[in-house]
Amino acid sequence: MQTSPLLEALIESLRCLPGVGPKSAQRMAYHLLQRNRNGGMDLARALTAAMSQIGHCEHCRTFTEEDVCSICNNPRRQNSGLLCIVEQPADIQAIEQTGQFSGRYFVLMGHLSPIDGIGPREIGLDKLQKRLQTEKFVEVILATNPTIEGDVTANYIAELCMQAGIKVSRIAHGIPVGGELEMVDGTTLSHSFLGRREINN
Amino acid sequence: MQTSPLLEALIESLRCLPGVGPKSAQRMAYHLLQRNRNGGMDLARALTAAMSQIGHCEHCRTFTEEDVCSICNNPRRQNSGLLCIVEQPADIQAIEQTGQFSGRYFVLMGHLSPIDGIGPREIGLDKLQKRLQTEKFVEVILATNPTIEGDVTANYIAELCMQAGIKVSRIAHGIPVGGELEMVDGTTLSHSFLGRREINN
């Protein structure tokens, strides 16, 4: 029995966060009330602003509150002629942190999954196809997840690119750097053999 | 580089929650944006209401949006003559779940800690002393944490109760039920010996 309905409501609401169960939610609520009410109010404002104002970029479909995101608007990236296809906006963040890629992105917001009613239209492939035809891309890099659905999606998009006469590639799958061979699963290991590269002097 | 300042602000704000680091905050933000915007808005409303409206009960100092909390207002609990002293509002919740106690509470919102400038006034002992004099308590049960500060605080309050001529007790410390003797630390084990009870037929 809680002594406060508002506190009970807060604990219940905190459970919408992933990985937060009843105990963590209670701990969070008490922590904010006892030690950081300003932080709680800031969080409420940030949540309201983000949930109501963040939409999708017209070009790449990632999260942004503008019509076109800062990456798509960047002229240097427009000139690179590279397009990287990812499943989620979080994947962009991960790729940007490597500093290896300076082209543009296209976010599918999912992957093909006919059983769940997710076809090419639902992951924005009509929009992608239009971009492939109207913009000049030198290469499309497929960075969907190495899962069955991700691979199927990559194959489907590869077809579209080849029809449009654009070079298409898939990011490499193999042993993670720093990993140990004996710890890696068989599928990854066979991928790393299939994807071996000749060493040239 | 995030494509959205609002998203960045949300990730930063989520870190005010205890146990939430940069990676979890990012996961939470993307989860809400992609799958549960309504949940995010509900959470914002619950946070605003709780942070701005929840205060402390006039009698027991626990969290409540009323002047007096539902436990202090309950006539059955007023008649029991029992008062349990705890450090945090969360402790009330834990004790209520046992169903063992049907008296009233007093929440210190901390413990005595002279180094941090927390003296008797800061943990509301002036208020407690007034209650001990004006209300008729049969017994005061000290349920502060079994830490050095909790013990010191308990001893201090025990003095106050004895001065007021009220029976005072400390909750038992010993082996947790379901625990194993060999796994328990020495201090707990010696507490359980000191606190042994005679078995009567």
Automatic annotation (TrEMBL), chains A, B:
Annotated family: Belongs to the RecR family.
Record key words, sorted: DNA damage, DNA recombination, DNA repair, Metal-binding, Zinc, Zinc-finger
Zinc-finger listed as a keyword: yes
Annotated TM spans: none
GO terms, biological process: DNA recombination; DNA repair
Stored Pfam families: RecR_C, RecR_HhH, RecR_ZnF, Toprim_4
ZnF region ranges: C4-type: 57-72
Role according to the record: May play a role in DNA repair. It seems to be involved in an RecBC-independent recombinational process of DNA repair. It may act with RecF and RecO.
PROSITE patterns: RECR, TOPRIM
Zinc-finger among keywords: yes
Sections of the chain in a coiled coil: none
Toprim domain ranges (all copies): 81-176
Identification of the protein by name: Recombination protein RecR
Single GO molecular function: DNA binding
